[in-house]
Amino acid sequence: MSVVFEPTDPLFRRVWGYLLERFPPVAYTVLVALFTGSAFALAAAVGGQSTALWQAGAAGGVTLLVFLHLRIMDEHKDFPSDSVAYPDRLLSRGVVTLPLLAKVGFVAVIAEGALAFSVSEAAGLAWLLCVGFTGLMRVEFGVGNWLNRHLLLYAVTHNPIVGLLAYFLWTAAGGAPCTEMWLFIGIVSVGSLAFEIGRKIRLESEEVPGVESYSTVLGKRGADTVLVGLRLITGFGLVALASLRGHLWLGGVALGLQCVGAVYLKVKPRKAKATEGVATLLLLVDFVLIWVLVW
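Request: output the structure for the sequence above.
Response:
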């Protein structure tokens, strides 16, 4: 039996219900933990400074909170259309409100800054780059109406936030700029773009009226092809990183996994949950493989 949340519930319960619905704590914590761990492990392996466990935890907390404030920004931007397309969501029903979420987002940003600068001044400055870019995302770079008519370009222009977070984590780990850093940033950026596209590919019968998806813009086969292409690019990035680390065989394993995912996606049309699941799993595998490279 599903839990029902109402506007009369206590504040904590309503916010918790919102997180469960729109920002699942367990799923995001696992994602961020693997993202953070892979960055700290790789940076240490290529000559990063020795860091304490609390520093990795603080950097991971910053990353988690950045993702949360991005989600809240999206709620404000998409509310007019989402309230019509998804009337059962807690925000649409008034269980939580945009002003309340804005306050949660403000607290999240303050906490991010405190955590980032507690790690190091360099980490704090790298975090400022992330926050500055999220501000540009909030105003959609001043060309929101145009970007909203070009869904794929919209995703590409918003994707650099992941690369900036990767740079923040690398800096928090005490890593210096190097080839491995740029490969790491490239791998997680392309992998996360594939993840984002995979979340919005649906069969025709699953499309939501009034809500654009990559399958409505590119067609189901076209969207699947873009997703597969991005995953293969990620695989070759892992091969290059594995070669630098002297573990080319592991790069072969990574590329093989991408090919298995590609075959799964292209053999026959898959429902949205299956496509999203494959895109999510492959992104998590990226982080695990990067971690394994340093052992």
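The chain has a mean pLDDT of 92.
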